[in-house]
Design goal:
The complex is a heterodimer of chains A (81) and B (379). Chain A is mainly β and 81 residues long. Chain A contains one helix and six strands. In chain A, strand 5 and strand 6 form a beta hairpin. Chain B is α+β, with helices and mostly antiparallel strands and 379 residues long. Chain B has four domains: 80 residues, 2-Layer Sandwich (Alpha-Beta Plaits), CATH 3.30.70.250; 67 residues, Ubiquitin-like (UB roll), CATH 3.10.20; 65 residues, no CATH class; 67 residues, no CATH class. Chain B has nine helices and 22 strands. Chain B has a five-stranded antiparallel beta sheet, covered by helices on one side. In chain B, a hairpin with an 8-residue loop joins strand 18 and strand 19. In chain B, helix 4 crosses helix 5. The radius of gyration of chain B is 40 Å and the shape is elongated. Classes of the chains: A mainly beta (81), B alpha+beta (379). Chains A and B meet through strand 3 and strand 5 of A and helix 2 and strand 2 of B. Strand 5 of chain A pairs antiparallel with strand 2 of chain B, so a sheet runs across the interface.
Amino acid sequence: MGFIPEEISKGKMRVVLLAGEKVLVEQHRGLIGYETEQILFRMSNGMLMLEGQQMVITSFGAFDAVVEGKIRCVRLEEDEG
Amino acid sequence: MREKNGVRLRLEGLGAEKLINELWKENTPLLHIGRSRKRGVEVTVDQVHFRRTEEMAREKGFQVTVLNGGWQQKIKEGLKRHWALWAGFILGGIMAGLSLTYVWQVEIINAGKYAGEVRLFLEEKSIRPGIRQKDVNRAALQEELLWRLPDVKWAFVKMDGVKVLISLEEGVAADKEMKNALDVVAAEDGVLERVTVFSGTAVCRAGDTVQKGQVLIRGEETGKGGEIRQVQAKGEAIARVWVREEIRMPTEEMVTHPTGKEAERILYQTPLGVYTWSEEPDFLMADREYTLLPLPGAWVPVTVVRERFLECSGEWVERDAQEVAGEAEKAAAEALVRAWPETADIDKSIKISMIERGIIEVVASAELTKDIAQYGASP
């Protein structure tokens, strides 16, 4: 029997970092800023900041995005209140 | 795979992130978003969303460049960017194609003594560089050349690419030789030394002086019963013949002295004619010098001709008569050998005379022994 994962059904974000080379961002709400050293995603509860070098958004779909490059830092800044 | 079939775009403008968000809101899948220069991003979209992406980017004031679209896009983009170059290529192709339908060279080969006549004939028929190939009626030209030139066995007129080639075969056509002609006649004037008959009846004997066209062996034989039957005459007629060539040479020559005035102009020599924008200088007499420089890269053969005029004054000066006679003698002997190569190794007789004031005439002649039998109609 199939099911819908909670992060999908409830629109909760999910960020997966793979070996410091790839980041999968699910349930983002759009792009705030993009430089090769810093990428900012709008999330349901704040802003996701990726820092690194030579970062490329290899996929930018309706619900998810994949970032590749040398990823040094993944930080979530939650909205106040 | 998706990426392979996608179109790579460079979007240049302010706020690339906003544009990406707008596209994202429209569910446009974007792949490989990367920074390009300071104000741009590079992004891959699939063929389905390419048009909309491009449209939206332009609406937002972005400059859109297709980097690796399908071949159709590449061609489209290439055409847009380098339209003048493409137009040049297309025009050039059309011109090249058109130029191949024209005649750019007329060459006469093996024409021998008829070279001048053939040239005049071609001029008369307007066969010259620049005419259309379809206007060259080869069969008609061949037929007319054969009709005009009596000692020509065959005339070939053929197209070799953009060149018209006219080639003559000297001699009398076989059918002309044998037509109603059973006799052997003299090919030229001479004194017979020996007549050998293989068939037919000899009508001349050794020692006879014969003229060109005179019957030497009649094409008839008498049977045992006295009846006369016609046969093809065959035989040899060895005769002494004399050949001659004459030339005339002036005893005066023009000596020029430069005045120091010079002028120069440029001419463009093309198969269609020679063009220039400059007038010829107003010199009464001038020596000319030419420098030819082929123009590279032109569609048709064009030669740039630099013509230099050196104004001069001239005067007629009497040359040493002995010197002129010596030159004339040599020239006459050479002319004789050119006309009759078999005289190269035999003694020649030279006769020099002053035919009028300032002109020397030299006649070179030689005696040959040869077969003058020719198959042809009796005169």
